[in-house]
Amino acid sequence: MGKRTEFLFLNEEEMIEAGVLDSARCVDVLDEMFQLLGKGDYIMGGPNHNEHGIKLGFPKDPQFPNMPADGPDRRFMAMVAYLGGRFNIAGEKWYGSNIINPSRGLPRSVLMVMLNDVDTCEPVALMSGNLVSAVRTGSVPGVGVRYLARKDSKIVGLIGAGPIQKACLQGIMVDAKQVEEIRIFDLNSETAKSFGDWAKEQYGVNYVVCESIEDAISIADIISSATSRLRPVNIQNEWLKKGSLIMFTGAGLIDEPYYTSCKLYFDNAKMHAAYMDDARRSAGPLEAAYQGMMGGQIYSLIDAGKLPAIDKIPSLGDCACGTIKGRESDDERICLMTSGMPIEDVAWSYDCYLRAKEMGLGTTLKLWESPHWS
Ligand SMILES: NC(=O)c1ccc[n+]([C@@H]2O[C@H](COP(=O)([O-])OP(=O)(O)OC[C@H]3O[C@@H](n4cnc5c(N)ncnc54)[C@H](O)[C@@H]3O)[C@@H](O)[C@H]2O)c1
Questions:
Q1: C-beta of 248 in contact with ligand 1 (< 6 A)
Q2: Ligand 1 touching residue 159 (CB < 6 A)
Q3: pTM to 2 decimals?
Q4: Are residues 293 and 238 in the same domain?
């Protein structure tokens, strides 16, 4: 007789009850995760152990009747990781994204997270991943503020006012206790306004709907850019004031003099090195491959010798575990380029799972009474 295996299934409502929306806790959990990243106590996919994930993309002109065609933000993605420390768990976030989904009453991307015992490999939990992913994404800028923002930051500038930006503001506001004004630019001013109403209700701060990116960010101390790729975000060096911190969660470009004069951090430089390797291996011109990547502009500057080699650019994990300093003066301009890591999903989903278990939430599912072939 073999071993019975069961695991916990958590739907979105149960995840909410378990506290998945609690950004203050998530920023602390991700800070802990960044410390493990800085020490090297993690493994992500691929031969370099630092891959963001594996993308399943579709061809422009499919040759088969049912095969989907490529489209904006159309993909499936598998993101796998092991995280050490008290987590000591392996997991995967698996999602699909289709821009038509909102017209069907669905979010653009639909995400699930699976956690597995690292020793027996049995499933531990399967859960709704949309809020795990959104809140962990927004908590990375929260950790960014902790190490890289001026402590007296008063104005937050936001480029894009979608759901991910909402999570980013939640993360930012955890440690930014002196914020008085939020300045918002979105291509859709109605979206910006309803975001502002929500922010005012949540944090009791004033908001301004701005007419341009420049208007939103030029007097801001903390800037968060989280847009989809509807229109490129082009930022000029002189729009970023002394002492500012700009954090990218979605794609955006700043002109070259900014990057060569700011202090630049990645979420994980080793993952960005893996992106650069992927681009070098891809068919077609390197520049075209870089253009599809969030950090592509920075990679080009590295290749051109205008920025230090990628392994000389610090990561947020180095700040979290104290091997590299974060902000050192009130004047320096800092940029944090992030692109999301499966260790973030594993950290936050595991923390939520533990609380769900404590609270008796979820449905226990049986994988087998005894494995049929063992
Ligand atoms: N780094 C990560 O870990 C991570 C994780 C999840 C999502 N993301 C990225 O975050 C971004 C935002 O996600 P979302 O789900 O909120 O997207 P969304 O499409 O729901 O919302 C994006 C908002 O940005 C606005 N926008 C688009 N281009 C703009 C521009 N040039 N200037 C101003 N506003 C603009 C849109 O009008 C929209 O309101 C996406 O690029 C997504 O890929 C990153």
A1: no
A2: yes
A3: 0.96
A4: yes
